[in-house]
Amino acid sequence: xxxxxxxxxxxxxxxxxIGTPFYVYDAExxxxxxxxxxxxxxxxxxxxxxxxxxxxxxxxxxxxxxxxIWIDAVSGNEVLRARAAxxxxxxxxxxxxxxxxxxxxxxxxxxxxxxVLPNIGSPHMIQQLAAAGYRGPLGMRINPGFGHxxxxxxxxxxxxxxxxxxxxxxxxxxxxxxxxxxxxxxxxAHIGSGPEVAEFLTxxxxxxxxxxGPEVAEFITxxxxxxxxxxxxxEAYPQVQAVNLGGGLPHPYRPGAxxxxxxxxxxxxxxxxxxxxxxxxxxxxxxxxxxxxxxAPAAYVVTRITDVKRTQANAKGPGQxxxxxxxxxxxxxxxxxxxxxxxxxxxxxxGDAPLTPTVIAGPLCESGDVFTRxxxxxxxxxxxxxxQIGDLVLLHDAGAYGYTMSSNYNxxxxxxxxxxxxxxxxxxxxxxxxxxxxRTECFASL
Length: 446
Ligand SMILES: Cc1ncc(COP(=O)(O)O)c(C=O)c1O
Prior knowledge:
This protein folds into two domains: 27-294, Alanine racemase (TIM Barrel); 296-438, Lyase, Ornithine Decarboxylase, Chain A, domain 1 (Beta Barrel), CATH 2.40.37.10. The strands form two sheets. Strands 1, 11, 12, 13, 14, 15, 16, 17 and 18 form a nine-stranded mixed sheet that branches. An eight-stranded parallel barrel has the order 2-3-4-5-6-8-9-10. The model is unreliable at 214-231 (pLDDT under 50). The chain contains 13 helices and 18 strands. It is α/β, with parallel strands linked by helices. Helix 4 crosses helix 5 (107-114) and helix 8 (197-212) packs parallel to helix 9. The site of pyridoxal-5'-phosphate has 17 residues, from helix 11.
């Protein structure tokens, strides 16, 4: 969302009305991204899912469903959110898939009682499913031995990744599943985007090679040893109906960052679908499941400057200008967690205002509660128009892994969410109160 996308909105009035900080989503941006993915997957045998962990807001799910985008859920409660949005639960048409490395809370119930397709990421989950009485189709998330996410620390594939079943073990896990009355109908790998756009396509090409075998080795040159191992991968799974290549479609968070070539990606997907189907002699559905791409640009965190203070240079380092804001990493954790970059702007600042290096820091009692950091977790002041107490600052591209990763750390309530549609703002979740925060507390003897 460009900063001026909110220009027609009386943000100051909204801020007075519901207080700061808050999230504001633009329905049009979500819709534009959905339209792009629908076009990308329009060919026969392709299916898009939405990795709803990125943003599980009800209006987002409603739009996904309206456009026949299926769901990748990661918990029982996400499955229930999808059902509340109107998705059908069941494995015949697996509109909702449950991808997890660990069954927790009500996750197993969703599989056993509602027939949600489980996509397991750990071998012992077979025994857990069997013990729960489940007999049915199964997805298997494989760690193909390579890949990583949008930053190096987001480790989605390879020996140091916790995700999935190591590729060498996959077949024996599938045999155990068959013995226990389950059949592997879907193979899955999510290795993420890589930090660069080019890396996303390369990762995807590696994945296609992984599943298809050496015939598609033209896609890659540097993974021959993996390709020969995977030559028999699909053929070894006679029940497989679908290959899911995961998410990771990158969003350009930095101004001027390249955007992914959806045309090239679409070609890759169609080629993969044909190749997999030819090779197995049956139609293989190829799925993708982006999360961030759908929603990242669709939201801002709106926060207010509460103070501007300065430190002076000494032997320890240079002095800084700190603009204190009322949003913290409890509202948007990505900069603190990954050193992720979010563009920032000062609401209604004149276009020609002189820029000053500014550190934007939040209210939490944590020195790391700073939005302007680099990947090494060091301060990285941002060039911003000089700010004053009361100014509103926008943290851009907060739609993915923003609100869903927020917490009530420091007993601050979660911020409200606003949904802007056709110029009208709707409150879609209110600010958490003290009562909300302590609602589950008890002192019960067991
Ligand atoms: C299994 C799986 N699928 C899809 C995604 C979505 O990734 P992204 O939001 O980068 O597209 C993730 C993200 O963690 C994931 O773990």
